[in-house]
């Protein structure tokens, strides 16, 4: 028998109980995913939520267990003097992981899709994508297991890393990185870095057992991945996003310039805040290939960079990643507001920065990410029905009755098995277009284990069993636009200044 | 003479601790080469470097003609390794353990394996972890000898074993014959004296001396000279007379270059009036003690 098969057989004999345990957990998870009534991800029965964390944990333990059957750290291992070499050993471990983690997960996700009405064969790319995501867990865990002496050290490492992630997400504000509209670029980059470093560590350990060097590579990789996720400049992530997005052969030439409108009362209300000074610059975006409200297409503009240069040469930059908490510099928040007309909103959280910036005219340099969407075929989703839409299924639930009045609630739950489903245009049938939902995406980000993305929308109030109209939106063009607005007197556009303590009294 | 194992100025440091210092030795084919020395002398480290389990800080080790860092499955299939520190798959039953090892060695002989199981009375249906230390060593040795290795590494194989088991294992090693070269590390001199053909003495990471057992036994003698009158020892006694000691008319020393033909004349040159000369062969243990004392006296 080939050494790979011999080692694999030995590992199965040794760890059959652990394999059985993980397979049972996977089966429970798959059954619950396939049969759950609600598609609302925030309203799942507890076991599903628990298993979404529990399964990766037990998989990690299984990987560590199988690896430490033939440990790589130390000089007492039985296998080192066996005439098998490191390649069959690595192949055996990989075969074990494929056979008892990746393949069962693949089958489970395929079964879930089938149970939810999707054809697994036609969604094979998505199933393979989920395998790639799973590899993003397996490779770092495998690398970690190769660098530690025993299971206790592995557990300690896992707990340390988990604590580090939790600590970072609160003190370094990793969570705010997710508010970046191109945050998926961040995590794909971070995960790719982590996987690349993990491959280096695994090869170093199996081929040479250079534990110290592997640990150095591991630590550097972890820091690099965390840095990419947390501190990758927003314009860099946007540039990468654009580079991998579809581009029209004859792109429109867009420009942003100052308009002569005055902010209305409603706009001022939206920006009202005791904590900051806000200016609203009326701007016009010229060169759009279609009217903003043209039915069938849509453009979304997201602020990527905003820099102000004062008359004395001082420069202030809006810093998004740090604006909500954590380390702050200028604490300037800026965005291109899209409600009604377009506005360049800039908020100053530090009075000294506002005082310095508003002392004289400033020149504003900005960069926006423009994304063009085309709406697909419209489908009406009636109450109590599960209706097929081009990217999946939607269900329309109505809570309340004719006597409930304002307490009624019409909810639309949608699920898709697309790798990158884009957004959904959702609007109650017969309503005015302005009431459509413009969330960043109806579907939540990649839901880790589940092969389905879910999304929920609801309308509360007098909405008696409203049918919903749903249309998929397809991104067909993305571009970065730089603009400059010279000589702006910020004082002229202030919509709100922080209330001084004495004034508040 | 074919050399099965050769080390050249092999050194290993663990942090600031020097475990091996310029170890140079050759293990000839068919020999039973014993590397002896106190605990912590560096014997196990030397052995692990030869098996590519530990990397040397400097120097080289050549095993079966191949740099130890480049040992491939082809060479490892000709090497056996039994060590008290080697982590065996304890959960395996003896039978499964032997079957598992068998798959890795093309030269595995089932009949020989069965014979070892019978001779050692190994319980095939019991896990390794439930065996006594002696039985575990026997199981490891059976798994190493069933494929007739060209080179067998034994790291402290007899420590903490009772006499019967020890003798049984020694019989096995002797029975392996000249087709298997044995490289053995031990801190117990007495246990290897009966069957080692070559010996190297290590202390504090260095080889103190290395020689064939026959030559070593022939070369060292414990000499007792009884003088007629108590006269002080001459200052120019040969450097090969180790640890000279005089007590009245009796002078004792260890002759490390004993030559029967010239011995009487040499005694007469340094002790003119001798009443009696007693020359005794020395066991290995006494030779090492004499050498160690001499080295200590020289500082």
The average pLDDT score of chain B comes to: 90
Shape of chain B: elongated
Q: In the CATH hierarchy, what is the architecture of the largest domain in chain B at level 2?
A: 3-Layer(aba) Sandwich
Structural class of chain B: alpha/beta
**What is the strand content of chain B?**
25-35%
Count the domains of chain A.
Answer: 3
The oligomeric state is heterodimer
Compute the number of helices of chain A: 12
Report low-confidence residues of chain B grouped into runs of 5 or more: none
What is the N-to-C succession of helices and strands of chain B?
Answer: EEEHEEHEHHHEHEHEEHEEEHEH
Distance between the termini of chain B: 36 Å
Query: Which regions of chain A contain 5 or more consecutive residues with pLDDT less than 50?
Result: 173-178, 321-328, 432-442
CATH topology of the largest domain in chain B: Rossmann fold
Shape of chain A: globular
Mean pLDDT of chain A: 80
Order of H and E elements of chain A: HHHHHHHHHEHEEEEEHEEEEEEEEEH
Instruction: Report the radius of gyration of chain A as a whole number of Å.
Output: 27 Å
Major sheet summary line of chain B:
6 strands, mixed
Q: Give the termini distance of chain A in whole angstroms.
A: 86 Å
């Amino acid at each position: 028998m080939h050494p790979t098969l011999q080692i694999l057989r030995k590992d199965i004999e040794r760890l059959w109980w652990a394999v059985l345990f993980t397979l049972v957990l996977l089966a429970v998870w798959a059954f619950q995913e396939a049969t759950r009534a609600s598609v609302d991800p925030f309203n799942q029965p507890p076991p599903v939520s628990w298993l979404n964390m529990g399964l990766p944990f037990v998989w990690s333990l299984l990987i560590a267990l199988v690896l430490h059957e033939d440990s790589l750290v130390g000089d007492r291992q039985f296998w080192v003097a066996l005439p098998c070499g490191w390649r069959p050993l690595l192949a055996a471990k990989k075969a074990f992981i494929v056979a008892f983690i990746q393949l069962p997960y693949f089958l489970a996700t395929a079964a879930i899709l089938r149970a939810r009405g999707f054809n697994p064969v036609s969604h094979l790319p998505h199933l393979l994508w989920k395998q790639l995501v799973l590899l993003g867990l397996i490779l770092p865990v495998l690398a970690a297991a190769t660098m530690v002496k025993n299971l206790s050290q592995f557990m300690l490492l896992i707990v340390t890393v988990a604590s580090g992630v939790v600590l970072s997400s609160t003190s370094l504000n990793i969570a705010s990185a997710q508010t970046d509209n191109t945050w998926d670029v961040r995590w794909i980059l971070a995960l790719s870095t982590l996987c690349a470093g993990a491959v280096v560590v695994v090869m170093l350990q199996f081929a040479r057992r250079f534990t110290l060097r592997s640990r150095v590579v591991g630590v550097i990789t972890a820091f690099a991945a965390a840095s990419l996720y947390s501190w990758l400049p927003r314009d860099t992530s946007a540039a990468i996003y654009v580079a991998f997005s579809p581009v029209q052969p004859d792109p429109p030439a867009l420009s942003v310039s100052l308009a002569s409108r005055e902010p209305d009362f409603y706009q001022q209300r939206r920006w009202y805040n005791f904590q900051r000074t806000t200016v609203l610059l009326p701007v016009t975006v010229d060169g759009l290939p279609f009217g903003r409200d043209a039915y069938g297409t849509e453009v979304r503009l997201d602020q990527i960079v905003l820099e102000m240069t004062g008359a004395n040469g001082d420069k202030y930059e809006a810093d998004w990643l740090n604006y909500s908490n954590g380390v702050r510099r200028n604490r300037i928040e800026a965005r291109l507001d899209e409600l009604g007309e377009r506005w360049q909103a800039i908020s100053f959280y530090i009075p000294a920065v506002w005082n310095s910036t508003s002392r004289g005219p400033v020149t504003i340099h900005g960069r926006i990410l423009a994304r063009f969407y085309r709406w697909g075929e419209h489908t009406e989703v009636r109450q109590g029905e599960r209706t097929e839409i081009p990217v999946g299924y939607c269900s329309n639930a109505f809570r309340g009755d004719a006597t409930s009045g304002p307490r009624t609630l019409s909810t639309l739950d949608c699920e898709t098995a697309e790798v990158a489903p884009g957004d959904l245009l959702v609007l109650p049938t017969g309503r005015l277009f302005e009431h459509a939902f413009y969330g960043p995406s109806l579907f939540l980000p990649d839901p880790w284990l589940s092969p389905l993305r879910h999304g929920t929308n609801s309308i509360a109030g007098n909405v008696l069993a409203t049918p919903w109209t749903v249309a998929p939106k397809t991104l067909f063009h993305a571009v970065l636009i730089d603009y400059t607005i010279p000589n702006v007197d910020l004082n002229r556009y202030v919509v709100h200044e922080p209330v001084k303590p004495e004034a508040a009294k | 003479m074919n050399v099965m194992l050769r080390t050249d100025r092999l050194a290993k440091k663990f942090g600031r601790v020097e475990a091996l210092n310029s170890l140079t030795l050759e293990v000839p084919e068919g020999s039973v080469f014993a590397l002896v020395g106190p605990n912590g002398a560096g014997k196990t480290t030397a052995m692990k470097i030869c098996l590519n389990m530990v990397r040397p800080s400097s120097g080289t080790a050549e095993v079966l003609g191949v740099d130890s860092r480049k040992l491939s499955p082809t060479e490892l299939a000709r090497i056996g390794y039994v060590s008290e520190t080697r982590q065996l798959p304890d959960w395996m039953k003896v039978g499964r353990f032997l079957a598992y090892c068998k798959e890795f060695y093309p030269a595995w002989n089932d009949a020989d394996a069965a014979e070892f199981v019978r001779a050692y009375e190994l319980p095939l249906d019991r896990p390794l972890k439930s065996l006594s230390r002696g039985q575990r060593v026997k199981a490891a040795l059976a798994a190493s000898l069933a494929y007739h290795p060209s080179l067998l590494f034994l790291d402290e194989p007899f420590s903490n074993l009772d006499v019967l088991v020890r003798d049984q294992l020694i019989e096995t090693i002797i029975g392996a014959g000249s087709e298997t070269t044995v490289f053995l590390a031990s801190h117990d001199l007495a246990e290897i004296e009966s069957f080692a053909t070559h010996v190297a003495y290590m202390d504090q990471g260095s080889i103190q001396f290395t020689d064939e057992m026959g030559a070593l036994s022939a070369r060292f003698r414990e000499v007792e000279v009884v003088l007629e009158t108590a006269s002080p020892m001459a200052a120019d006694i040969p450097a090969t007379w180790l640890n000279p000691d005089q007590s009245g008319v009796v002078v004792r020393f260890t002759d490390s270059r004993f030559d029967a033909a010239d011995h009487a004349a040499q005694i007469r040159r340094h002790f003119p009036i001798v009443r009696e000369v007693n020359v005794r062969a020395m066991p290995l243990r006494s030779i090492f003690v004499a050498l160690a004392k001499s080295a200590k006296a020289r500082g």
